[in-house]
Design a protein that fits this description.
Helix content is 17%, strand content 35%. The chain is of the alpha+beta class. The chain has one domain.
Length: 83
């Protein structure tokens, strides 16, 4: 699947991955993302974000703000996955 097809899948709440990524790693889209600031500037403030790509890493870490690389954009090997 190419990245154009990936975007359509992400808009429909699918999870996608590249075969070269570590097992369990995938990307999904959150339509809205809320985070309570736990430390640093803005401590205790609720931040609300618009749509964001999130990368899930196999160790239970969700990383909001993922951006595809040029290689990701040009790749034809994307896969949809079920989680």
């Amino acid at each position: 699947m190419n990245f154009g097809e990936v975007l359509e899948k992400l808009k429909r709440c699918a999870c996608v991955r590249r075969p070269e990524w570590e097992a369990g790693t995938h990307v999904y889209m959150e339509e809205h993302f809320k985070a309570l600031v736990g430390k640093g500037g803005g401590l205790g403030h609720l931040r609300i974000y618009g749509p964001v790509f999130v990368r899930f890493v196999g160790n239970s870490t969700h990383e909001p703000g993922w951006h595809p690389t040029i290689a990701d954009l040009l790749a034809e090997d994307w896969e949809e996955m079920t989680v």
